[in-house]
Sequence to fold (549 residues):
Amino acid sequence: MLQIDLWKRIVIWGLCIIGLFFALPNAFYTRVEGYNDTKAGLISADSAQDSFAWPSFLPASLVNLGLDLRGGAHLLAEVQVEDVYAARMKALWPELRDVLRAERAKIGTIRLQKGAADQLRVKISQAEQIAHAVSAVETLSKPVVSLSNAGARDLEVTSDGDTVIVTLSAAERALTDQRTLQQALEIIRRRVDEVGTREPTIQRQGARRVLIQVPGIGSASELKDLIGTTAQLTFQPVISRSGNPDVDPGYGNEVLPDLTDADQFYVLEAAPVVTGEDLVDAQPSFDQNGRPAVNFRFNPSGGRRFGDYTADNIGSPFAIVLDGEVISAPTIQSHISGGSGIITGNFSVEESTNLAVLLRAGALPAGLEFLEERTIGPELGADSIRAGKIACIVAFAAVLVFMVLSYGLFGLFANVALIVNVGLIFGLLSLVGATLTLPGIAGIVLTIGMAVDANVLIFERIREELVSAKGPARAIELGYEKALSAIIDANITTFITAVILFVMGSGPVRGFSITLGLGILTSVFTAIFVTRLLVVMWFERRRPRTLEV
Fold:
């Protein structure tokens, strides 16, 4: 019989109400946006307009507008990883020199030769001992920390006559490229997030390129200046810990929060022992017990200051501060000489890697060459939104008229479900924090056209069943049952396409795939459940003897 249980009706209407509830803020976009900015501190409460008032019990999540809809700046930068290779070799020279000096009795005098920036060339006077020199330099190489390059070393040591040549190995170069891009992304993201911009797009493209899109910023040159800002990294003595942010630190001290624990604060000496300018490198590694840790290395001047301090303060905590937040406060276990040390703790491999990234995030690891830069004005975004609205309205009106003319009252039911469907799409986009772009609007327009496809299949099947069925109730029931498999199959194939576009694509393509995928889910739900519930409720009230579809 044509019926739907009460609990199913409650669930269907409940889901519709929840979806429309989360979509509601988008109908008051400017007001809710101003409310969110005021709450986040981007707009002072004193200067906030009364029009930004929004009930706190209502949701305040919005569909974020992308660069092409809001306007802003677009940059495509290429990271000069060769700078990192050169810096690694430059930092390696003091250690290499000390190792070869210890073997001077055999290899003779040593002299640094001119060569490529990403290699060290050292000439020895006793050419017949070149193998011994190579063997001595190889002691500086370390295993590459990578599952895919097990057994590989970070340095490649060769010889050419009386000259020792040291370069980074292929495995280490690949990992260096990966770490450099990760570090650059982290620094850029931190710099952009500082100014409170909404939903920036910062992602890797290819092997060495970074795509940066920041909606709402004035110009591309402004964005370039913002990215070029250097993060502040310091190493400071710890005086005490406290749970009170208002504790009196005393003269010459300061109170800084813990990065990971909002209730933890540190009283530190304001004058740092060393700064991020002295940090040469930080890499994830393992301690002597095989537990994840982080190795770090300073330049010679920073290493001397760091060594002297650790020698005099064994057993005392030492804070690592990044942009005014304590990211770690390890205890000094012993005198750390040579300008390098290790940070141990209850880290996972992922946490040690992230900590290494944060330690290196004091400055961009390499130069950025900007290949593309564009400034998109808000007027263009407004025009895009206006054009998108017109397209949606035209598509919406055309579908509504077609369904009513083709299927009469049943077409009207389908139209109601279509309106609910669009509301559910915006509710889901708001709930997941998705960013809407022009291709995303195209996905919504496409979804509007596709949303009634399932209803068309059902209504045509009902028409066929009316010829042979015993009555309208049976015809409706069979129409939904027999059309279900075709609806599911058709939408699954389209949904798979949307998933592939999301996984393989980037930027606008992903925006299109998100709206398309969510639209498929909501359209299937409204066609199979909402439209059917409307038909059942109408049938229960009218009890028609005949049916026209």
In short: The chain has a mean pLDDT of 81. The CA atoms of residues 200 and 260 lie 23 Å apart. The domain at 82-170 is CATH 3.90.1070 (Hypothetical Protein Ta0175; Chain: A, domain 2).
